[in-house]
Design a protein that fits this description.
With 184 residues, the chain is mainly beta. The protein is built from two helices and 16 strands. Strands 8, 9, 10, 11, 12, 13, 15 and 16 form an eight-stranded mixed β-sheet that branches. It starts with 11 loop residues before the first strand and ends with a helix. The model has no long low-confidence stretch (mean pLDDT 81).
């Protein structure tokens, strides 16, 4: 930030001591671990964006935003910049692949990771072909067999389950499918 941009910000407080931002006015509060919180004034309050940018400006892990909800409730956008669009890996669902579980022939999970963790922390090259074939650092790991969404209304993104054999069709499941099937 330039010296000219550094300034004291005057915040308006309401009768309860709550900060009131003018529409379009923004403040950014730095949190621990590189997380940022951006408040943007709206005509009826403020929108919140909570995110963690990498050194190159990519948003990693997730961002939480209230921006597109008229009631102010937020949604977690997982892997906002690093997530793999599903239409590029042979799936007609809308959304992004945000994590992977690699399962062996016995059905045991042998690897589990988010894209941010694999790419930025572990420095792995993660590729999923248009046929749903996962490779990490050039090593075949499995085929996309199932996409799982923990909560379609509050969390964006899907975790991919990769198995040694290619399925005829990639199944899509949400938490409610698992809950209802366990009681039926």
């Amino acid at each position: 930030m330039s010296e000219n941009a550094k300034q004291n910000i005057r915040l308006n407080l309401d009768e309860n001591g709550m900060i009131v931002l003018d529409p379009g006015q923004e403040i950014v509060v730095k949190g621990r671990g590189g997380w940022l919180n951006r408040l943007t004034g709206t005509p009826d309050g403020a929108d919140l964006l909570h995110y963690n940018p990498a050194d190159n400006g990519i948003k990693k892990f997730y961002e939480y935003s209230t921006h597109e909800n008229p009631h102010g409730a937020g949604i977690v956008f997982q892997e906002p910049d690093l997530g793999i669009p599903l239409d590029t890996i042979g799936v007609s669902e809308e959304g992004k692949l945000i994590g992977m579980l690699v399962v062996n022939d016995s059905g045991d999970v042998v690897e589990r990771f988010s894209i941010t963790n694999a790419m930025l922390r572990l420095k792995k090259v993660v590729l999923v072909s248009s046929e749903g074939e996962l490779s990490i650092n050039g090593e075949f790991k499995g085929f996309l067999s199932l996409l799982f969404s923990p909560d379609k209304n509050r969390l964006s993104g899907y975790v991919g389950i990769f198995t040694p054999k290619k399925p005829e069709v990639v199944k899509v499941a949400e938490m409610e499918n698992l809950i209802f099937s366990s009681f039926m």
